[in-house]
Specification:
Number of helices: 6
CATH topology: Endonuclease, Chain A
Number of domains: 1
CATH superfamily: VSR Endonuclease
Radius of gyration: 16 Å
CATH architecture: 3-Layer(aba) Sandwich
Order of helices and strands: HHHEEEHEHH
Helix content: 40-55%
Oligomer: single chain
Distance between the termini: 52 Å
CATH class: Alpha Beta
Strand content: 15-25%
């Protein structure tokens, strides 16, 4: 029996498509991936090209239930805004928060993007002083 989680998250039937997308990442995604990979952003693990239901998000952190999307040229064609809204509504219905950035944001404000992503991290609590 297949668990309901695998029916929604990182579905095996789209594994090859996810793999192909990882091999052909646009330059803006590569730049952001270099910041997110290897738990380098506050120790949180992000995955590339992660599927949620019928959709594949650019980056996903399961600990934070956070998806990050980089909107490139395909997001400015006719009908894309409606598709993006429907897609985001579905993803958010699964309890995942979505942060969206454009290619231009990545190229011009990478530090700002990193700060916005970090703002989603839980606040670290300081250890109680010893008595």
């Amino acid at each position: 029996m297949v668990s309901s989680m695998t029916q929604v998250f990182n579905r095996t039937e789209v594994k090859e498509k996810r793999r192909a997308l990882r091999k052909e990442m646009p330059p803006a995604e590569v730049i952001l991936w270099n910041i997110l990979r290897g738990k380098s952003l506050s120790g949180f693990k992000f995955r590339r090209q992660y599927s949620i239901g019928p959709y594949i998000v650019d980056f996903y952190c399961s600990q934070l239930k956070l998806a990050i999307e980089i909107d490139g040229e395909s997001h400015v064609v006719e009908g894309a805004e409606t598709r993006d809204r429907e897609r985001q509504a579905f993803i958010e219905s699964k309890g995942v928060h979505v942060l969206r950035f454009t290619n231009t944001d990545v190229y011009e404000s990478l530090e700002g993007i990193a700060a916005q992503i970090a703002s989603r991290f839980p606040a670290k609590t300081s250890p109680s002083p010893s008595l």
